[in-house]
Specification:
By secondary structure, this protein is α+β, with helices and mostly antiparallel strands. It has one domain. The chain is built from three helices and four strands. A hairpin with a 6-residue loop joins strand 1 and strand 2. The longest helix is centred in the middle third of the chain and has 13 residues.
């Protein structure tokens, strides 16, 4: 008897019919998962509304609490640090509609 020769096509098992292939879910990055979870939890809407809402009403004075000293400082439009200043309502910072209201509440004007 002669030698039995098997013909084998390399990688044949990798090529399945389309109906037999399993679809894998798209890979999501760590950040997209965190942002998606935050949106579902409703955490994104609160800071955005707190930052955009008061200027639309007309209250443009930002009441900021200093991280280092805890001093209460307010910023008016046109000052050097007005734009980078962010208001965090959870830390006690707030918006004022006028400089007089900020001074009456015990806040001082920013030096720059």
């Amino acid at each position: 008897m002669g030698k039995v020769v098997r013909y084998h096509r390399p990688g044949w098992n990798n090529y399945r019919q389309k109906s037999q292939r399993r679809r894998r879910p798209a890979k999501r990055s760590r950040w997209s998962k965190l942002i998606g979870a935050a949106i579902l939890a409703g955490m994104i809407g609160v800071p955005v509304a707190a930052e955009i809402g008061p200027p639309l009403v007309g209250c443009k004075v930002k009441g900021n609490i200093s991280f280092k000293t805890g001093e209460r400082i307010y910023h008016v439009p046109g000052q050097e640090y007005y734009s980078p200043t962010r208001i965090n309502l959870f830390k006690g910072e707030r918006w004022f509609c006028s400089e007089e209201a900020a001074r009456a509440a015990g806040w001082r004007k920013a030096r720059r």
